[in-house]
Amino acid sequence: MHQENRLALDTAPRSTAPTSAARPRAARSPWTLRLVTAGLVLTALNLRPAVSGLGPLLEEVRATLAMNGTVAGLLTSVPALCFAVFGSLAPRLARRIGPAAVILGGMVAITAGLALRPLAGNTTVFLLTTALALAGIAVSNVLMPVVVKRWFPHRVGSMTGLYSMALALGTSAPAALTVPAVQALDGDWRTGLGIWAALGALAVLPWAAVFARDRGSRRAAQNPARAQDPAPGTPSAPAAPLRITRSRIAWALGCFFGLQATAAYVTLGWLPQIFRDAGLSASTAGVLLGVTMGLGIPLSFVLPPLAARLHHQGPLVLLLGLCGLGGYTGLMLAPAAGAWAWAVLLGVSNCAFPLVLTMIGMRSRTSAGVAQLSAFVQSTGYLLSIPGPLLVGVLHGVSGGWRAPLALMATLLVVQMAVGLLAGRNRCVEDGG
Predict the structure, then answer these.
(1) pLDDT tens digits, residue range 9-43?
(2) Using DSSP, how many helices (H) and how many strands (E) does the chain show?
(3) For 123-150, how does the pLDDT look when each residue is reduced to its tens digit (9 = 90+)?
(4) Which of 324, 319, 331 is closest to 424 using CA atoms?
(5) Are 307 and 432 contacting, i.e. CB atoms less than 8 angstroms apart?
(6) Can you list the residues of the chain whose pLDDT is less than 70?
(7) Residue 339, class by beta-carbon neighbours within 10 Å (0-12 exposed, 13-18 middle, 19+ buried)?
(8) Separation CA 324–CA 343 (nearest Å)
(9) Within 10 Å of residue 31's Cβ, how many Cβ atoms?
């Protein structure tokens, strides 16, 4: 039980509640929990606008900054790389200063990056400010399951569902609203990108309050009479890290995360073109993509609580995978005739993302373990997802059609289902599983 001295209070198995009497009052107060809940939702809303808000205005950005095609292509693939690189730093930072402080810093980085990016006068500054925002997103990405595990140990499913729904909304809303916002304001892409910094600034507020209360809890903990247990979010004495790389569960989760991310990026990047090549109009193709991505909003709220109730998440893995296989098969055989059905099926399949987030929170007994597991899974997964969209584009160019790329995606989805079954077993990384 050497894990007990690490980041978090919830060192017992999932079925065991932390003893509230041992916590400082500020850490267990309803007001603090409300602040953390607000912080979770606002953070989730800020984890995708830097990426999804750029796509609709990329052509205008390229023209203004004289950005060549290579750099523009880099902009579409660099998020996954940044998520992998910067996300791996999150557990170390959280051990030193606490996850609330790290997420607060992440929100400040997102706000600064999004506010400064529209001021860029050249490609280099644009890339650097984008990387600043992506760094903030990366560390916050990793620590979201940690926050849920620490402050809401018996509500992992429902709280994961809440912030997954907000994350889906934060993905689809900027993609849909950025261009209308530009048209309603002054027609300048700089305004369209900069407005999302306001959402980041809003997310700073609850985390600043949580951080301030954590500092008060740490001062109280320095008093021997009140030092029974650190507050949630308070860093404590480090212990030997888990050997995550030796865990089959961790590797299965990492592969599952990477394969679902590959499918999501391919869907986001190529699905409209598939529909347009089948004879549908650009506007219809955009609406169909909106349906696919928008399904994640309600389903992300429903799926995690359901997953948390199951002894084994394998049935959900199979259900989502079968929906994806149906969507890919339909796109190969009758892309135009059944377009709406295929869009819905792929939208359901894309909800593997909130499912894997829920499993991350369930595959470790402690929030310190969740921090390490989340960093490993997301870093590994995002690295694995980088080649997928590029390979789909290459296959499409070589074959002149979409059957070969779709066959590849169907094959990867079968592999995703297999590793998802392994990841869904009721085991924890602390057990060496």
Answers:
(1) 333 333 333 333 334 444 557 888 999 999 999 99
(2) 20, 0
(3) 999 999 999 999 999 999 889 988 998 8
(4) 319
(5) no
(6) 1-28, 69-70, 72-74, 76-77, 216-241, 432-433
(7) buried
(8) 10
(9) 10
Q: Is there a contact between 304 and 165 (Cβ–Cβ < 8 Å)?
A: no
Q: What distance in Å separates the CA atoms of residue 325 and residue 327, rounded to the nearest whole number?
A: 5
Long-range pairs for 410-415: beta carbons < 8 A, 24 or more residues apart: 410/324, 410/325, 410/328, 410/329, 412/259, 412/262, 412/263, 412/388, 413/259, 413/263, 413/321, 413/324, 413/325, 413/328, 413/349, 414/321, 414/325, 415/255, 415/259
Q: Crossing angle, helix 123-151 and helix 156-184, to 10 degrees?
A: 150
Is the pTM higher than 0.85? no
- Nearest partner of 356 among 264, 233, 288, judged by Cα: 264
Contact (CB, 8 A) for 1 and 11: yes
Residue pair 250/373 in contact by the 8 Å Cβ criterion = yes
Q: Hey, what are 431's tokens?
A: 């057990």
- Placement of tokens 């990867």 in the chain: 412
Distance CA 414, CA 428 (A): 24
**Predicted local distance difference test score (pLDDT) of residue 23:** 41
Task: Measure the CA angle with vertex 13, ends 248 and 16; round to 5°.
Answer: 160
Question: 267, 221, 244, 224: which is closest to 392 by C-alpha?
Answer: 267
For CA atoms 256, 262, 265, 269, the dihedral sign is: negative
Tokens of 350: 């894309």
66 and 72 Cβ atoms separated by less than 8 Å: no
For the chain, the straight-line distance linking the first and the last C-alpha, in angstroms and rounded, comes to: 17
Q: How far apart are CA 199 and CA 225, in angstroms?
A: 41
Q: Which stretches within 152-196 are classed as H helix?
A: 156-184, 189-194
CB contact set of 27 (below 8 Å; sequence gap of 6+):
9, 213, 214, 217, 231, 232, 233, 234
Q: How confident is the model at residue 217, as a pLDDT?
A: 62
Residue 405's identity, in one-letter code, is P
Comparing CA positions, the residue from 325, 340, 234, 323 lying closest to residue 284 is 340
Quick one: residue 110, left, alpha or beta (phi over 0 = left, psi -120 to 50 = alpha)? Answer: alpha
